[in-house]
Amino acid sequence: MARKNYRQLCGVAKALDVLGGRWTLLIVRDLLLGPRRFVDLQRGLVGIPANLLAERLRSLVDADVVTRQRLPAPASGVVYALTPEGLALEPVILGLGRFGQRWLATPQVDDRRDLRWLMLSLRRRYTGGAVPAGAVLTLGVVAPERAFSVE
């Protein structure tokens, strides 16, 4: 399927040519915390059809935002991970989170929650400063489905 684009010589328009499709920035958000298998991405992005996820991933791979990596044995399988270009989107994703946090106070009944998203929120909120040079601040979050540690 041919991608539509804005046909504008503008950095914002060119970025949206690559990232402006529905679900695309949420795929990037989910990959910011590390490589993910296709099924894990689909499980986390409830409602995205498999063919659309595959198309978005292909598009992101073609744009050098995401890489497709084969896992070595015994794990085997394929994971998707952000390239350095994709990792450069972290401030954009965190900025969107900062902008959107004003609507978090009134969640909808059917809004999903995910600890990975909480981790990104913590990353967005901690700007450093109070930890002396050379020291490590560790924050642990434990929930029924998994545990996280942030340093």
Describe the protein's architecture and organization.
The protein is of the alpha+beta class and 151 residues long. 42% of the residues lie in helices and 12% in strands. It is built from 7 helices and 4 strands. It has helices at 11-19, 24-31, 38-44, 50-62, 84-87, 90-100, 115-125, and strands spanning 66-70, 78-82, 139-142, 147-150. Strands 1-2 form a two-stranded antiparallel ribbon. Strands 3-4 form a two-stranded antiparallel sheet. α6 crosses α7 (115-125). The radius of gyration is 17 Å and the shape is globular. The protein starts with 10 loop residues before the first helix and ends with a strand. The model has no long low-confidence stretch (mean pLDDT 87).
In short:
With 151 residues, the chain is of the alpha+beta class. It is built from seven helices and four strands.
How are the elements arranged and paired?
Layout lengths: L10 H9 L4 H8 L6 H7 L5 H13 L3 E5 L7 E5 L1 H4 L2 H11 L14 H11 L13 E4 L4 E4 L1
Antiparallel strand pairs: 1-2, 3-4
Helix pairs in contact: 6-7
